[in-house]
Amino acid sequence: MIDGNQVSEFFEKPKGIEGFVNCDLEYGPLEKIVSKGELMVYEHDGFWACMDTIREMEHLNKLWNDETAPWKIWSDVSM
Questions:
Q1: What integer pLDDT is reported at residue 66 of this predicted model?
Q2: Which phi and psi angles does 63 have, rounded to 5°?
Q3: Is position 78 within any domain?
Q4: In the list 4, 9, 12, 39, which could disulfide-bond 33, CB 3.0-4.6 Å?
Q5: How confident is the model at residue 16 (pLDDT cuts 50, 70, 90)?
Q6: For the whole prediction, is pTM greater than 0.90?
Q7: Same domain, 34 and 58
Q8: Within this chain, do residues 50 and 64 fall inside the same structural domain, yes or no?
Q9: DSSP class of residue 11?
Q10: Which residues have a Cβ under 8 Å from the Cβ of 32 and sit 6 or more positions away?
Q11: What is the DSSP string of 32-61?
Q12: pLDDT per residue over 49-73, tens digit each?
């Protein structure tokens, strides 16, 4: 649960609730930080993709090689 840019409650990957992704930490550390009011968020509404498996890596590499990668925002510059 987010209140402005501060995390007010934290649930580790609950089923059936949509939300933002977090770094992969165990239950204890993030819950403790939240209880102290010390966990903040940066909301990113752009492209995001997981790259935990070979299949996901191959998909992202294909996007890059096909020049359709949404995160590639620069162009090649010849000197």
A1: 94
A2: -60, -45
A3: no
A4: 39
A5: low
A6: no
A7: no
A8: yes
A9: -
A10: none
A11: HHHHTT--B-----S------SHHHHHHHH
A12: 989 899 999 999 999 999 999 988 7
Residues 27 and 60 grouped into a single domain: no
Q: Which domain holds residue 12?
A: 1-42
Q: Is the pLDDT of residue 1 over 90?
A: no
Residues 25 and 59 in one domain: no
What is the number of H-type helices and E-type strands within the chain?
A: 2, 2
CB atoms within 10 A of CB 6: 13
The residue ranking higher by pLDDT, 6 or 15, is 6
Co-location of 30 and 18 in the same domain: yes
Amino acid at 43: E
Same domain, 29 and 54: no
